[in-house]
Amino acid sequence: MGNVYSAQNIASYLIYELNEGHVFVNNMSIQNILASVERKWQEIFGHSAFKEMVYVKEEGYTVKEVFEAYESYGANHIPLPATEYYLKYGTFQLVERTYAIPNFTQEEIRLVQQALTQYRYKLLAKAS
Description:
Blueprint: H1 7-20, H2 27-45, E1 55-57, E2 60-62, H3 64-70, E3 83-87, E4 94-98, H4 106-127
Antiparallel strand pairs: 1-2, 3-4
Helix pairs in contact: 2-4
């Protein structure tokens, strides 16, 4: 059985992976990859991959919190994941940090990597 993660954390993983491979990633591509992850997750584990509500619209799939976090980039490349504010217990200083990467199981990593591979193939097909 698969775990349930924050879509923000999964988006962080996707952005780091794609940037490491020098692959273009924008807000809509994140939404498309999240949709692919969600379909595969539902297929294999029988439940949603995300804690957040998932919206399926005519123009596509949206995890609202992720969409809003990257909306300012428009159609431009996203170089780093969105940030969150963190207050360590016992301190009085807010720390801004990028969303953490989920601690996936091996099966979950394989599933997410399949979605990333599928996205890369789509980009290559459009380029050729």
